[in-house]
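Summary for the steering committee. One of the milestones for this cycle was to obtain a three-dimensional model of the protein with NAP bound, which we needed before selecting residues for the alanine scan. The sequence and ligand used are listed below.
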Amino acid sequence: MSEKLNNKVVWITGASSGIGEALAYAFSAEGAKLILSSRREDELERVRNACRNAELVKILPLDLLDVPSLEQKTAEAIACFGQIDIMVHNGGISQRSLVIETDIAVHRKVMELDYFSYIAITKALLPHFEERKDGHFVVMSSVMGKIGTPMRSAYAAAKHALHGYFDCLRAEVSPMNIKVTLLTPGYIQTNVSKNAIAKDGNPLGTLSQNIASGLPADEAAQQILKAVTKGSYESYIGKFGGEKIALWLNRFLPSVIIKKAPGLSPK
Ligand SMILES: NC(=O)c1ccc[n+]([C@@H]2O[C@H](COP(=O)([O-])OP(=O)(O)OC[C@H]3O[C@@H](n4cnc5c(N)ncnc54)[C@H](OP(=O)(O)O)[C@@H]3O)[C@@H](O)[C@H]2O)c1
């Protein structure tokens, strides 16, 4: 058990499945108190019941697309245990469609869910962190927050926006002992591609091969806990493979990635 996480209060959005669910189990095993959020209350209950310290887990259902409600939801989250130490912004949706065919409503929906909802919660929570001179924002970006590949324009734009916003926030609040960790996962085994929306806003409904052969979510959660306890500014999460190489190529040889980035097929 990590001394750094024992008794900490951790609020996780997108906790009903995938990476968020795996993070709930991993933080609970470390003795953290949890607040679990997403839309599906029954799934949150299932996750709570499977946590090692289920008696230290509260459920707070919310819809991240209802951005005006998030200030009140943040007040309710703080009231659960009287404080929040770590905010894990994780809930989100991906997208699969070419730029030319994608309805602008798809761009707005992905931006609202993957970017503006995080901003709304952050602004509502920041006074609490500043008052306590303590707090940690953990932000689920993606390899797509650092590079762009075909079929991901709305998703990559929202994830890139997170880096701009949270890098600025870190520069403002680090003197107040408030930390920001941006996570850039590669392929992790979850339903993310099934739930991704297509050009018309409907779910894709298929599990991509890259996701199916990605890092298991429980292993991703262990990598994330390491990044959180170290207070990393930014951390790649995933296998040592094509996505990690793509990050390196994008930084140092960007022309290569357009043609050959390994493992980054358009579909
Ligand atoms: N899996 C990967 O390969 C991968 C790679 C890079 C980044 N990521 C990021 O990791 C995060 C988690 O995704 P995942 O892979 O674990 O996929 P997932 O299994 O589809 O999980 C998505 C989570 O977001 C929640 N969510 C979706 N829409 C919501 C809404 N309107 N309001 C509240 N919660 C909502 C879902 O819960 P409800 O349906 O109950 O609301 C679910 O818990 C996302 O930000 C994703 O972009 C994933």
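Key point for the committee: The beta strands are 9-13, 33-37, 57-59, 86-89, 135-140, 178-185, 188-189, 215-216, 234-237.
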